[in-house]
Every structure is written in C-alpha cells, then in structure tokens.
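request received
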Amino acid sequence: MSFSFNMSNAISDIGVMTRRNMLRYIRLPQLLVFNALLNVVLLLLFNYVFGGAINTGGIAYIQYFLPGFMVQTVVFGSTQTSVGLAEDLSKGMIDRFRSLPISRPAFLTGRVIADAARYAILIVLMIAVGSIMGFRFENGVLPALAGVVLIIFFGIALTWVGVFIGISVRDVETAQVAGFVWVFPLVFASSLYVPIETMPGWLQVFAQINPVTPMVDTMRALALGGSVSASLWKTLVWDGVIILAFLPLALRRYRLIGQ
Amino acid sequence: MAERDEESSAVCADVSISAEGISKQFGKVQALDNINLIVDPGTVFALLGPNGSGKTTLVRILTTLLRPDSGNAHIAGYDVIHEAQLVRSVIGLAGQYPAVEDVLTGKENLEMIGQLYHLGKEKAKARASELLEKFGLSDAASRRVKTYSGGMRRRLDLAATLVASPSILFLDEPTTGLDPRSRLGLWEVIAAQAKECNTVFLTTQYLEEADRLANKIAIMDKGKIIREGTNQELKDCCGGDTLIKVSIADRSEISKASDALTQLGGENLHSYPDVGEITLPAAGGTSLLPEVVRRLDAAKIEIAELALKPPTLDDVFLAITGHPAEGTADLKEGSSNKT
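response:
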C-alpha cells in the first residue's frame, strides 16, 4: 500500500465523507425538516408582517424579497456547518478521521459538498413556497438557474467560514452563537430586505461592501430582469476572496486541532 | 484468519514504539515533561496514571494527532512528525470515547472505515462482517448504533480500529465508564488481540486492568513517567499481590494505629489519614490478619473494617511518590462518564 498522494484515493475519500454527511441528513430528517420549517416561517413572517410597510419602488414585496431570501437561506445554513463540526469534534469523530491515512482535506470537503446539496434542497423549497405566495421568475429559466447556482457557490464560500468557526470553537453551543454573530449583520445590513438608500449613510457604506448585497442584487436581476454585470463581478470576487482566505485557514486549523 | 496471522507476524518483527524526550505544554500547564519510552514488538504496554497525568496527550502525540513542543517519536520506525501519514497506515486508535456514527448501522460504520483505508468495497464489506462476528455484534450488525449499549459501542469502536489489521494498537482508557461485566468482556477481546502479535499501547486508571492485560507498565504522574517495570515489580514495590486494609473507627488515632502495625508492614505500611485507612502487605496470606487484630486491640484501637484486597493505583502511587494520586479511579469508579 502506498500512501503518497493519490488522486483517485483522494476522490474516493471525499466521496465517502460526503456520503457520511448526506446519510446524516437522510437518517435524521428532523434536522433538515426544522431547518426548512424555520425558513418557511421566516418567509411568511417577513413577507406579510413587514412587506406592506416597505417601499420597494412599485414591485410587489415578494418579488423584491424572495431572491434575497434564497441568499439568506444559505447564509444561515452555513452556521449549521459550524454546529455540526463542533459536534464531530466534541464526540471524537474528528480524531478518528485524523488518525486514518486519508487525504487531509477529505473530511472537511465532504462536509462542504453535503452542505451544498442541503442548500440546493432549501432553495428549491423556498422557490416553491414563494410561488404559492405569488412569486414569479420574470426573466426566463436559464437566468433563474444560473442565479441558483451562484447562490449555492456563495453558500460554499460561506460554508468554509462556518467550517473554520466550527473547528475553532470546539463546543456545540458556542458554535451556535458564534455563527449568529457574523451572520445577522451580513443579512440585515444589505439590500436583502430593504433598499439600502433608506439606511443612514454610515450603514450604507457597510451595506455596499457587504458581500450579501451584490449576491442579492445579482439574483434579483437574474430573476426579474435588469443588468447583472456590476453586481456579478463583485459577487465572484467576494466568493474568491472568502474561499482563498478561509479554506486555507480551515485546513490549517484542522491540522492543528488540539494544539 | 490463518492468513491474517501470518501477515501480522511478518510485520511484528520490526514493530515498536519509541518516544524520545517528548515535552508538551498547554498554556502554563506542562502536560508532558521529557517522556522517554520504548515498547517492544508483540507486547502489551500499559500507561497507568490518574486523570490529568498526561496519558491522553502522549497517546495523541504518538498517533500523530498532536505535535510535541520538543522531542520526537517513532512508530514502527516511522517518524510521527515527518512521516505522519505512514504512521497512520500502521496504527489503530480507539480514543477515550467511542467514535462511532450513531445514524449508521454497525456494519456501515466498519465499511466506512474500510473504504477510508481504501480496501475496496468488497473487501471492506467482508472485513466488516468478519469483525462484527469476532466482536459478537453480528446480531446487531444492521441496527443503527444509536440503539447500542455502552459496551457494544466500545466493541464496535475497537472493531473499527482493527479494520486495516494495524500492527500497533492504541487504546486510550478502553474501559472507562463501563460496567464491570462489559469491562471483563472487553478485557478478553483486548487480550485476544494482543495474542495475535499486535503491539498494544493502552492507558488506564486501573492497576487491575494494566495487570490483567499488560506485560509492562509505566506509571505516569504530572506529565512524567515516575516508574516503569513489569507488573510484578510494580506490585512488589507496594507490598505484593495482596494487601491488608484496615479502617479504624476513629481517624484521629491513625498515627497510633500505624505505630502499632509498623513492625508487620515495615516500609510498605501506608496510612491514609483522610479516610482513616492503613494498608500493609499480606505477606503470609491470611495468617497475618489475627496478628493485626491482636496488635490493634492491645493498643485499644477500634477496627471498623478489615479486609484483604489487591493493590490499586492509589497504593502503588503512595508507595512510589509518598502521596496519593490526585483524582484517581477509586474515587471516580462509581460516577458515570460524560459522553
């Protein structure tokens, strides 16, 4: 047996680890079900409670808001990655996998791939519920599909942040709270719920820089029509920056667990 | 099975563990302080010590999970720092708590590990069935691990460490938190494993466990190995295989009692003022008991309890260090383990 780097072994390892995480979602469906329920409840609440009071320039609030809500689903979803990994760490699962001669990034990568599948399921569900509430894609199927793919990719980038937090904090409850700390400002101080022109100037500055804003603007343009070029490249740059920063950080942290 | 035995005895010849000057500090705590040890191929080595003495830290370093601040270790000749992946290919590690997946069945757990060792699907399946059979888990093979008892989880965890037939097995407190019956069962499994010529490195808080399983025992205290020897050597240093334990009714009379018995116990008489107990070697079996009673009676000391017992970690500790082990197994034995 040779344990020098071997591409087919690495792919097989990632496959096994992805399957492990997928099976957890399938066999413990309550996790995914409650996650989905929470999103549906938030969708209904925001649309019917605040929707009427927010001036979105003539278009129905559900049209304005649902593209952003899909983004919110993956942003919140990435905090669950932290919780799951903190649990693996505290139960000793990570030690077991680290003591095996498997490709080093396989464990974390498998987790991220399984999470991407989770995001896809949640986004489809949000589109379905949104349609019942009157949401329509006005710009055709392909742009809509492209938008969904972009959101999942954005989710993958943020999941690496979630991974880093999950294996850094080491206990489940801290992971939960730590997730919300960075996620809430990102979601609310953006163009997701309200047009950012209505915010105070200093907050507008943050909202403009916030990676959620270009992602939401891109999805909105792809769903409803309009120019995507300005927001699309910003989104892609953000995806790249986040992955380049947090993937190596997470892998390094994984290597040094327990130090 | 015959085929496997041949394989492992071939590996066995040049297998061993060596630690060279390993130190590790966490913040201000010196977890390990210049640890040197050698484990011969085909033997069972027990690291015995109380909670917090550094046992787990040493296991984590030897199994590549943690880097030492200084020093190095070799497992089967491979460097744990620079050849970590090679080390991982020859070891099996069962951590302090069973690391098995609740939502998977017993069989799926073992197959997953087999696939991670790149055994191939068919071989991973076959190996899983073989191990489930061997560990008495065949009936529960297709049940989710969630439904397993504590003892079954430990057995499955141990089975998982054996999937790739490692030549060196690390067991970190393999029976902590188990009831006495499951513990006996697990001891049998470990002893059988050791017979198959694997080198086993285990940590424990129980002298009885180390005595049962190991050829050689090292005692650890506050990050240092304070004594190393065969089982007999260690038991001899605190008075042999059997001790007489006297509990006196009035704790304040402990020094008086100890004076009365000093001739019988010699340097191996130890008193525990906190609990009003004295232990001394039962050199001639039970024949010493009447003499103990007579002497205490003559000194007008009331006996609360008198018993013969095998030595524990506490006794060995006291004999070697002059102080009882902090937070030892005896105090914790009854308390359930957090998982």
